[in-house]
């Protein structure tokens, strides 16, 4: 995590704006080419909640930010761990791009997924849309200069995905006020996307077992909610078995360690992320709201 100061502009986006059109700079000194437009901001924040259409282009929906570099490389921040530090804040190189000025199209070649063409529309001074007709999806990107971008704000707004960036979270510390709490026996957590749900698994395997040998005893869905303190979140685990439910106050210690405090019992746990996942082709971000607040009661073993 890295702190920069800025004010997030919450703009009401008008998606019916005109598609970007080629203009001859020799006729209009104020005209801007498509290449210049894409390079006019250091970072383009991918506002996943504004995406429309049933389709999906994974390397865009997975990205938190995209950058169109002067050397025609595309950089993306795909991870919250190291966000603001990785690649000097630009993330990692995911491929290259080519601009077709007269057609208003940017063709992006992802190193894994291959080449996709996007029609570019400029919505306002800060905002563009990328439309892929083949997949029937439109993404909204909001431009920021790096000095104005609030890395910490974006990080804490996306903790739900930060939890998915390790193959397992393993307990290494426990302060037990209530030793009878069922979660005491669960030593590992795993977070991931399943279909259109943010899901989790938990395990009672021994703490020192290799990640590949963890047996996942329980599964369910999870959500991360805001609290009055931006640096603390509420983590809710909804177990599939018997409609069980656990609620914790979640604090991020650093990019590899978290602290959970059970809201009901006061038990405190610290967990370490194991098996960092830098670039996962199957990962994606879900539009919000993506969760129903089920009323569930914890099953006592």
Please tell me about this protein's structure.
The structure is a single chain. Helices cover 7% and strands 39% of the residues. The chain has 301 residues and is mainly β. The chain has an eight-stranded antiparallel beta barrel. The longest helix is centred in the middle third of the chain and has 7 residues, at 151-157. The chain is elongated. Mean pLDDT is 86; it is low at 2-18, 22-29 and 289-301.
Count the E strands: 16
CATH overall fold name of the largest domain: Lipocalin
- Unreliable stretches (pLDDT < 50, length at least 5) are 2-18, 22-29, 289-301
**Strand order, biggest sheet?**
1-2-3-4-5-6-7-8
Major sheet size, sense and barrel closure? 8 strands, antiparallel, barrel
Instruction: Please give the radius of gyration in angstroms.
Output: 21 Å
Helix content: under 10%
The sequence of SSEs as H and E is HEHEEEEEEEHHEEEEEEEE
In the CATH scheme, the class of the largest domain would be Mainly Beta
User: Strand content of the residues, in percent?
Assistant: 35-45%
Number of helix segments? Answer: 4
The CATH architecture of the largest domain can be given as Beta Barrel
The rounded distance between the terminal residues' Cα atoms is: 38 Å
What's the pLDDT, averaged over the residues?
Answer: 86
């Amino acid at each position: 995590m890295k702190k920069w100061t800025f004010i997030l502009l919450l703009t009401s986006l008008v998606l019916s704006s005109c598609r970007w059109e080629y203009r001859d700079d020799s006729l209009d000194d104020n005209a801007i080419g498509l290449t210049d437009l894409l390079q006019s901001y250091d970072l383009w924040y991918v506002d996943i909640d504004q995406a429309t259409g049933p389709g999906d282009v994974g390397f865009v929906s997975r990205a938190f930010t995209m950058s169109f570099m002067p050397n025609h490389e595309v950089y993306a921040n795909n991870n919250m761990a190291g966000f603001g530090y990785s690649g000097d804040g630009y993330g990692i190189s995911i491929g290259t791009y080519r601009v077709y000025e007269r057609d208003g199209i940017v063709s992006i070649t992802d190193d894994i997924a291959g080449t996709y063409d996007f029609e570019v529309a400029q919505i306002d001074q800060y905002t563009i849309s990328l439309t892929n007709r083949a997949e029937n999806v439109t993404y909204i990107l909001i431009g920021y200069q790096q000095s104005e971008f609030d890395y910490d704000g974006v990080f804490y707004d996306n903790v739900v995905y930060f939890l998915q960036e390790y193959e397992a979270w393993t307990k290494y510390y426990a302060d037990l006020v209530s030793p009878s709490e069922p979660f005491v026996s669960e030593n590992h957590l795993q977070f991931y996307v399943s279909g259109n749900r943010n899901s989790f698994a938990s395990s009672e395997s021994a703490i020192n077992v290799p990640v590949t040998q963890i047996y996942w005893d329980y599964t369910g869905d999870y959500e991360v909610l805001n609290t009055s303190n931006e640096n603390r979140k509420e983590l809710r685990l909804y177990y599939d078995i018997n409609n069980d439910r656990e609620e914790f106050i979640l604090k991020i210690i650093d990019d590899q360690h978290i602290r959970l405090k059970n809201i009901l019992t006061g038990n405190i746990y610290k967990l370490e992320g194991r098996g960092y996942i830098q670039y996962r082709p199957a990962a994606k971000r879900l539009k919000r709201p993506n969760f129903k607040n089920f009323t569930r009661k914890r099953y006592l073993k």
